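Open question from group meeting: does this chain pack into something compact, or does most of it stay loose? Before anyone orders reagents, we agreed to write out a predicted structure and look at it together. Recording both the input and the output here so the notebook holds the full record.
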Amino acid sequence: MKMTLLPDERYENELPVRRGDSAPSDASMNPRYGALAPLAVAAGIACAPMAPADMPGLGPFAGEWGAHGERLTVNADGTGTETYRGGSMNFRISSVQPPPPQPEHIAYGHITSGGNAPTGSYVTITLVDGGQGALLSVLGADNSLPFCKIVNGT
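Structure tokens returned:
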């Protein structure tokens, strides 16, 4: 039984190639963008940065924290700054360990600029005292430095 193939306008500039033959030198190699669109959309979704709403548990970390002349600011988008007598360090939170029943509620991130540790070094913030306190740890610098939540400016 011989099958008749219907012409497809997407391929009208291409010459037929039989299995095992090499492609003729004048064969069209134009990409078919319609077929690539779903792949491009999927890649964009997979590579898009997480929005705060996509990072469960970030909310309790957001806000201002203080400790004897130092200040810790965590923004709703996961960026933050530690300001201290010697300067400042910027960081980005990339994930949050869920709250209890886990033993601790911890945000994990990395330095984006400033500070005494190299860019990319780890930063962790652990909530304590029911979320009224936070312990900041930074590679080569702070190790569980305690901060208190600032509410209404104090």
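Observations to bring back to the group:
Residues 33-47 form the longest helix (15 residues).
The longest strand covers residues 87-96.
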